[in-house]
């Protein structure tokens, strides 16, 4: 049997493993997610961050030996093509017409091997059918756009996350804007510290060399003052991350918007604002972030093995840390942001730094002050009810 014929018979996961695009344990995890949450295997692989959309389309093209459609191909489908298929037919057979060329209609579908769907369409339209393969994510998007078929929240969230990643790739890396608050660095230049005596043996040795007046506990009044003087959200985040970086190997700041968690900024090995901005996670499914949001309390310990947690650790490509600390930032009784910190894969975060808790409490007050100012600067029009 020829290689191409054999590949057409192989399952998607087997092909990806043969091509060394995923590991067997990643396939096992994706299959487990497919059993729990449904959807096609490719969708679950995308959700876990194991492959990209372009990689998935290319493999599907090779597997079925037909072209794959991208989101761009589905943006402006002619109305005459859409009218050839009813809403009910599109949903039942999971098809979307793409183009009409004389007596040929190009159709995007999830399962090109479904001859019954192709035959039914040919009989209904009296046209020749040219098959195209579509990602589940794209086909449901097109059905919503052209046939008003409401998508599940799962596909909307995944779409937002992937679009966020696409946008980050399109943008050149931005240089950090200088903060308007003129603050001296919290610590001396590390090169000055290590140039004569070499790297410190441990944290205590570090503070001995720097001087105890540079210890986070002694810097606290100055940091709290900086938060009190902050005039925008980026200044607040800069103060938080500068202080958190004194306690953690890696630190990230997230903001909460409805049911989604968005990366905001970060510091540490392999972490910067671009990495942080590319992270976007749903908060309706089980994760360490959902725990903090629901309880309003901190999380300290190893990261549990769940789908969203695994997507998070894959997002910044780091070795799974030994333990992590997540601290909520509150405005009133509402969690508006979450600070993440870890010590890498060799050391554990052993405790919650009291000074950091005070800084985050002050950060919440700073946010509240900005919200109040925003409302004052942009007052709502009076309610003209019939009272």
State the gist of this model.
The protein is an alpha+beta fold. 49% of the residues lie in helices and 15% in strands. It is built from 18 helices and nine strands.
Can you describe what's shown?
By secondary structure, the protein is of the alpha+beta class. The protein has three domains: 62 residues, no CATH class; 99 residues, Type II secretion system, protein E, N-terminal domain (GMP Synthetase, Chain A, domain 3, 2-Layer Sandwich); 187 residues, 2-Layer Sandwich (Beta-Lactamase). It is 49% helix and 15% strand. The protein contains 18 helices and nine strands. The strands form two sheets. It has a six-stranded antiparallel sheet with strand order 6-5-4-9-8-7. A three-stranded mixed sheet has the order 1-2-3. The N terminus and C terminus are likely disordered.
Write the layout of secondary structure elements.
Blueprint: H1 3-9, H2 12-18, H3 24-37, H4 41-48, H5 53-64, H6 79-82, H7 87-93, E1 95-101, E2 104-109, H8 115-125, E3 128-133, H9 136-147, H10 153-170, H11 190-197, H12 203-210, H13 216-229, H14 233-244, E4 250-257, E5 260-268, H15 273-277, E6 280-282, H16 288-295, E7 299-301, H17 307-315, E8 324-331, E9 334-342, H18 354-377
Parallel strand pairs: 2-3
Antiparallel strand pairs: 1-2, 4-5, 4-9, 5-6, 7-8, 8-9
N-to-C CA distance = 80 Å
Radius of gyration: 26 Å
CATH architectural type of the largest domain: 2-Layer Sandwich
Would you identify the CATH H-level superfamily of the largest domain? GAF domain
Q: Helix amount, in percent? A: 40-55%
Spatial strand order of the main sheet: 6-5-4-9-8-7
| CATH fold title of the largest domain | Beta-Lactamase
SSE arrangement, N to C = HHHHHHHEEHEHHHHHHEEHEHEHEEH
């Amino acid at each position: 049997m020829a290689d191409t014929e054999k590949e057409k018979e192989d399952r998607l996961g087997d092909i990806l493993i043969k091509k060394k695009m995923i590991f067997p344990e990643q396939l096992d995890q994706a299959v487990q997610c497919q059993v729990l949450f449904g959807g096609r295997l490719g969708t679950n692989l995308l959700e876990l961050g194991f492959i990209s959309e372009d990689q998935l389309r290319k493999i599907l093209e090779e597997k079925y030996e037909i072209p794959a459609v991208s989101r761009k191909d589905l943006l402006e489908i002619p109305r005459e093509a859409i009218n050839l298929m009813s809403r009910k037919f599109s949903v039942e057979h999971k098809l979307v017409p793409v183009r009409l060329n004389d007596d040929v209609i190009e159709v995007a579908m999830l399962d090109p091997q479904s001859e019954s769907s192709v035959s039914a369409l040919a009989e209904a339209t009296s046209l020749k059918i040219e098959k195209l393969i579509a990602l589940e994510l794209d086909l449901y998007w097109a059905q919503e756009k052209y046939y008003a078929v409401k998508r599940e929240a799962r596909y909307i969230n995944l779409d937002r996350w992937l679009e966020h990643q696409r946008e980050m790739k399109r943008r050149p890396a931005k240089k950090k804007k200088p903060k308007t608050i003129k603050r001296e660095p919290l610590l001396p230049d590390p090169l000055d510290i290590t140039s004569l005596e070499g790297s410190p043996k441990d944290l205590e040795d570090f503070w001995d060399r720097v001087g105890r007046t540079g210890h986070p506990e002694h810097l606290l009044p100055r940091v709290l003052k900086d938060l009190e003087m902050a005039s925008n959200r980026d200044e607040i985040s800069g103060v938080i991350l500068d202080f958190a970086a004194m306690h953690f190997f890696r630190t990230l700041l997230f903001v909460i918007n409805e049911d989604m968690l968005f990366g905001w900024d970060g510091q540490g090995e392999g972490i910067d604002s671009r990495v942080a901005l590319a992270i976007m996670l749903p908060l309706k499914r089980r994760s360490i972030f959902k725990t903090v949001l629901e309880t309003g309390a901190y999380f300290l310990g190893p990261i549990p093995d769940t789908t969203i947690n695994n997507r998070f650790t894959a997002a910044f490509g780091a070795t799974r840390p030994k333990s992590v600390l997540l601290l909520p930032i509150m405005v009133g009784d509402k969690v508006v942001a979450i600070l993440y910190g870890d010590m890498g894969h060799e050391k554990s975060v052993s405790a919650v730094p009291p000074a950091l808790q005070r800084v985050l409490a002050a950060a919440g007050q700073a946010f509240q002050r900005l919200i109040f100012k925003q409302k004052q600067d942009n007052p709502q029009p009076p309610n003209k009810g019939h009272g």
